[in-house]
Amino acid sequence: MKMPSKRLSKFALLISFAMFVGCEKPAYYTCMGTITHDGRPVPDLQITFAPVMIDSVRSPMGLTDANGKFEMTTARFRGVPPGKFKVFVEDPRAADGSRTRIDDDYLYVTKRYCELNSDVIYVSDMHRENFELKLDTKELPQKAEAQTPPTETPPTETPPTENPETENPPAKVPPAEQE
């Protein structure tokens, strides 16, 4: 009758090993809230948090509903892993070549806060359940201007120096004539 206990102990050891190796879920922080533009909710947006430090973390994403409310998810997990993220939004139907909405506020937000123009940073360090992400009207960030090569200026004439050594250098004597 000792055989079943050996099997049971091996099975328990196998389960414990599986729990310690690769089965631990990483920490994710809840991120739920509303996207607003100048105080008004913005519906029908796809929101993406792109990691500032490129690593193996997938970008958390969410969609706003008719009231501008969203909940971020990362792959199959609810929430956002710890870290610093660049926030950008886009029209979820833009990949199909169409638009969800065409009102001025919506078009402004999708252009001003797209991946190339957004300057919004989100730090995931705690749970946020009533987070208001304000995408208000403001100037586009200044892009670094392309470096233009300096224009060539014609050389200016320098006045001759009055150093007698440089004005009349000594003549060199060919080696055959030296004695």
Quick tags:
179 residues; alpha+beta; four-stranded mixed sheet; four-stranded antiparallel sheet; 3 helices; 17% helix; globular
Largest sheet: 4 strands, mixed
The total of helices stands at: 3
- Tell me, briefly, the overall form: globular
Which residue ranges are poorly predicted, with pLDDT under 50 across at least 5 consecutive positions?
17-22
Average of the residue pLDDT scores = 78
Q: Which structural class do you get from the secondary structure elements?
A: alpha+beta
Strand content: 25-35%
What's the alpha carbon Rg, rounded to whole Å?
Answer: 34 Å
Find the count of extended strands (DSSP E, 2+ residues): 10
Describe the fold and architecture:
This protein is an alpha+beta fold. The protein has a domain at 31-129. It is 17% helix and 25% strand. The protein has helices at 3-20, 104-112, 164-167; strands at residues 31-37, 40-41, 46-51, 61-63, 69-71, 73-74, 77-78, 83-90, 120-124, 128-134. The strands form three sheets. Strands 1, 2, 5 and 10 form a four-stranded mixed β-sheet that branches. The longest helix has 18 residues, at 3-20. The termini are far apart. The model is unreliable at 17-22 (pLDDT under 50).
